């Protein structure tokens, strides 16, 4: 295991995460048998914009019941569960962090989601060629240094004509202050520019079909989130649980960098061939 991969796994690792989520919900009066996807929503979408951002990325793809979709960097499985439910398809997730994969499997079992998860790297996917019709990469590329290899692997496991839907935080100006949600230090952060992504995609045989810069959307999302918390307090389980004790600092640094236009989330839809 490379040093960068080791650092990333340690950054996200949380032993007993599933049990911590169950305990937090129980403390708020929600027993395991009562847990639904809606209750998990505040912790399930570990990216800027949550479900609204997921739908904006995927609605144009024309997913059908026959679509085989791979979610690269699936975390605790929230996005995979939403995609499976919203579009009626089976979703396979892969993530580098064993704690996240264990948690994803158990939460999906509770809510009855048509998902499965494996531990693995986006630059060395454990799947045969042409195994999927679509793949997603949602707030993951910031943790992957070798974007050429990432896109090459995505192209390998996709069928001809398959789509690769990317929604990542990308670099537009200066680096953010650290820590941020995806990295403790600058050495562990691999932010790329939109041009970096497009270059890697072209090398792998992809064509860019859609690009949407979502800086304004991100700023409004953060403003709405802060206003909601100020009015009604945080939900029983939320994203800071995935970020550890430094969560407030991580969030503040990310929001500050978005507001300064140093970084912003970008949607890109690529097609193979």
Question: Can you describe what's shown?
Answer:
This protein has eleven helices and seven strands. Strand 2, helix 6 (98-111) and strand 3 form a beta-alpha-beta unit. The two termini are 32 Å apart. It has 273 residues and is of the alpha/beta class. The longest helix is centred in the C-terminal third of the chain and has 18 residues, at 215-232. The chain has helices spanning 3-12, 17-27, 37-44, 50-58, 78-87, 98-111, 147-157, 194-203, 215-232, 240-243, 247-259; strands at 69-72, 91-95, 115-119, 132-138, 158-171, 206-213, 263-272. The protein has one domain (3-272): Rossmann fold. The model has no long low-confidence stretch (mean pLDDT 90). A seven-stranded mixed β-sheet has the order 3-2-1-4-5-7-6, with helices on both faces. The radius of gyration is 18 Å and the shape is globular.
